[in-house]
């Protein structure tokens, strides 16, 4: 694990859980799987604080445990990849909102905040929120159906549980339990809401559900592919690929490198039934031919010429995306000449310096300077080969080549460094303007309370005037700065996700 990655992990833990939990998490990141007393000794924290920190991290599934040789003691391991996913929570919530609506969005948001919850309790919490925030009445039956929809779509999964009474339990989940929906009783929930029954009386008490991040990442992966084909062709081409991915899941495991063949007839039938893309239906055969003849070969035709099927080559797709990302970075970091040399070395696989100067159509001195600049920045690698028949001073010759995996890992490190800098800058802005931000929050809280009590607009205006014009100007600048930083953070996360997808299929 890299130093930059560790800094990002520590900063996320510090922002969300405080310095004590961050200290325990940072130790586990640095030293790996460790028993409780080692953590206590190395962090110099009271044993009660270490236990409390581990309980919090285990609750949010950021730490796992297993019995060591002495079955009465546990070893703890930090799940650092899940900590990084906390930055993606807004994306997960937004994805569910667009796909299933506000109620499902609230269900996912509540579970993300708590890490896990029973179905009945999360339904009660969402009803309470809807009444309080939106004055909207939603039935328990409709929310039950929303919860089951998320469950059927595999965005939620059952939390593993212990089946033994050992000092260090083993958490397991069977396939039957994973696929069995919870028993949500609307009558019993109503009794609990009216304080006529306790939460313990609910039929699904003790059966907890949590977020299935893997399912969200499938959607994010598919969105990347669809967007790429939409930009390459048009909206109808992107829709064709989206339907192809949708049908892929019926006959292929989600993370397979190559999908099983998907019949073109199925895609045509779906387009005809949906009737939302008439242009795609009218020129369906032309789109099939265009995708089949596409030079990237990411989607290829399989089967006979009369019917035929398409296969998606997911590994090659993300390899191609990685190449394009690296080329774009070279272009932005250096210039178009550097990008030309990089593409030339990529196409030739191995190439001598003299050939670069000849084929890149760049002056020899400049081509040499750019090549060694790319070498210095690790975008090019060099390999020296010995001439077997030569004993003179020129008995070796040099070849330039591109090691994509090494470059991708280097870019990933740069992304972590950038992410750390952005998060640090956001914290700095909050610290510097803490007084004004706190004042704005107090004023907003007062106005909200007075509005709920039916205060007149004149009274509300008087309260708003507590913030002076210069302070409003500062607040606007802070808001603009934070929006820019949040936007950059999301873009960096998209690059990290794309690179991670490449490494998954590597």
Automatic annotation (TrEMBL):
Function: DNA-dependent RNA polymerase catalyzes the transcription of DNA into RNA using the four ribonucleoside triphosphates as substrates. Specific core component of RNA polymerase III which synthesizes small RNAs, such as 5S rRNA and tRNAs.
Pfam annotation, one family: RNA_pol_Rpc82
Domain of life: Eukaryota
InterPro entries per the UniProt record, alphabetical: POLR3C_WHD, RNA_pol_III_RPC82-rel_HTH, RNA_pol_III_Rpc82_C, RPC3, WH-like_DNA-bd_sf
Organism this protein belongs to: Asbolus verrucosus
Quaternary state and interactors: Component of the RNA polymerase III (Pol III) complex consisting of 17 subunits.
UniProt-recorded name of the protein: DNA-directed RNA polymerase III subunit RPC3
A GO molecular-function descriptor: single-stranded DNA binding
Subcellular location(s) of the protein: Nucleus
GO cellular component, one term: RNA polymerase III complex
DNA-directed RNA polymerase III subunit RPC3 winged-helix domain sequence ranges: 326-402
Gene3D superfamilies for the chain: 6.10.140.1450, Winged helix-like DNA-binding domain superfamily/Winged helix DNA-binding domain
């Amino acid at each position: 694990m890299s130093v930059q990655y560790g800094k990002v992990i520590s900063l996320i833990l510090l922002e969300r859980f405080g310095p004590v939990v961050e200290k325990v998490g940072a130790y586990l990141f640095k030293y790996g799987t460790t028993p409780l007393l080692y953590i206590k000794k190395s962090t110099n924290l009271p044993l009660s604080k270490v236990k409390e920190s581990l309980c919090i991290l285990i609750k949010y599934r950021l730490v796992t445990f297993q019995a060591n040789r002495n079955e009465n003691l546990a070893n703890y391991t930090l799940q650092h990849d899940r900590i990084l996913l906390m930055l993606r929570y807004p994306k997960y919530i937004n994805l569910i909102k667009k796909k299933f609506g506000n109620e499902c969005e609230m269900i996912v948001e509540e579970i993300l905040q708590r890490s896990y919850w029973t179905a009945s309790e999360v339904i009660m919490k969402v009803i309470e929120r809807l009444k309080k925030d939106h004055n909207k009445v939603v039935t328990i039956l409709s929310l039950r159906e929303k919860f089951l929809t998320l469950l059927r779509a595999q965005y939620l999964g059952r939390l593993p549980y212990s089946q033994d009474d050992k000092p260090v339990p083993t958490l397991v989940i069977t396939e039957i339990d994973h696929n069995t929906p919870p028993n949500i009783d609307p009558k019993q929930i109503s009794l609990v809401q009216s304080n006529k029954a306790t939460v313990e009386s609910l039929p699904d008490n003790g059966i907890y559900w949590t977020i299935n991040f893997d399912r969200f990442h499938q959607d994010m992966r598919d969105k990347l592919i669809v967007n790429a084909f939409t930009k390459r062709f048009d909206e109808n081409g992107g829709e064709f690929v989206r339907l192809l991915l949708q049908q892929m899941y019926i006959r292929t495991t989600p993370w397979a490198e190559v999908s099983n063949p998907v019949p073109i007839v199925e895609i045509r039938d779906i387009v005809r039934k949906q009737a939302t893309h008439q242009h795609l239906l009218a020129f369906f055969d032309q789109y099939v031919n265009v995708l089949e003849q596409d030079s990237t070969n990411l989607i290829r035709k399989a089967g006979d010429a009369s019917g035929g099927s398409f296969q998606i080559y997911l590994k090659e797709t993300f390899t191609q995306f990685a190449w394009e990302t690296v080329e774009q970075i070279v272009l932005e970091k250096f210039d178009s000449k550097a990008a030309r040399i990089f593409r030339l070395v990529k196409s030739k696989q191995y190439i001598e310096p003299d050939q670069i100067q000849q084929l890149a159509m760049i002056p020899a001195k400049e081509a040499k300077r750019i090549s060694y600049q790319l070498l210095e920045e690790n975008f090019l690698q060099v390999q020296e080969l010995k001439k077997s028949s030569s004993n003179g001073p020129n008995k070796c010759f040099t070849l330039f080549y591109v090691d994509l995996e090494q470059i991708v890992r280097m870019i990933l490190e740069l992304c972590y460094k950038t992410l750390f800098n952005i998060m640090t800058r956001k914290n700095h802005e909050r610290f510097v303007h803490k007084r004004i931000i706190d004042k704005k929050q107090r004023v907003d809280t007062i106005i909200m309370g007075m509005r709920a009590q039916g205060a007149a607009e004149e009274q509300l205006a008087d309260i708003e005037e507590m913030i002076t014009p210069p302070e409003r100007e500062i607040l606007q600048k802070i808001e603009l700065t934070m929006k820019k930083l949040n936007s950059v953070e999301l873009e960096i996360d998209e690059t990290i996700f794309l690179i991670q997808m490449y490494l998954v299929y590597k």
